[in-house]
Amino acid sequence: MNDDIRPPLTRAGYFRRERRSVPAAREFAARALAEWCAGARTDDVLLCVSELAANAVLHGVPPGRGYRLSLLLEPAAGRLRVEVDDSGPGLSLVRERRAGDEDAGGRGLLLVSALADKWGVDARDPGKTVWCELELHRRPGPAGEGRVP
User: Fold this and answer.
1) What domains can be seen in the chain, in order of their start residue?
2) Positive or negative: CA dihedral 144, 96, 51, 107
């Protein structure tokens, strides 16, 4: 089949608000990428998945709720989009920040920005979608383009 006419491939999973869901989300993504033969940037994609899922668990999901991880591969474009939807507080909590040398965390979106070609946050009612896009057949240049409305 010609790549120019292949439809996008999608996969979505729902995960609970607990730390052990982060490796489960990563494994979910790894299985999809292996099935799709998604290119040389698998490690970058999986790190982005881990960081976005961890942010949803730590900051974005109210108790008793979960989050949704969606993957969308556009074969013709060679692009993969990762989305994490949560029903937590809005956009004001999503910001890149500089972690201090002694801080154990706080670098998630900086890592996503460095690895992804684009990333951003879209408001939903309730909650938000934090997403990133990676071009699968090339390495990114300097930190990716980010946007927070």
Assistant:
1) 3-147 (3.30.565.10)
2) positive
Give CA–CA dist 84/47, Å, rounded. 13
Q: What are the residue ranges of helices labelled H in 37-123?
A: 42-55, 108-115
Strands (E), 77-127: 79-86, 118-123
Q: What is the rounded distance in angstroms from the CA atom of residue 7 to the CA atom of residue 9?
A: 6
Edge-to-edge strands, sheet with 145-147? 9-16, 66-74, 79-86, 128-135, 118-123, 145-147
Distance in angstroms (rounded) separating the CA atoms of residues 21 and 5: 35
pLDDT digits (tens, 9 = 90+) for 69-126: 999 999 888 999 999 999 877 655 555 455 555 544 455 788 999 999 999 999 888 8
Q: Let me know: does 50 contact 62? Beta carbons within 8 Å.
A: no
142: pLDDT strictly greater than 60: no
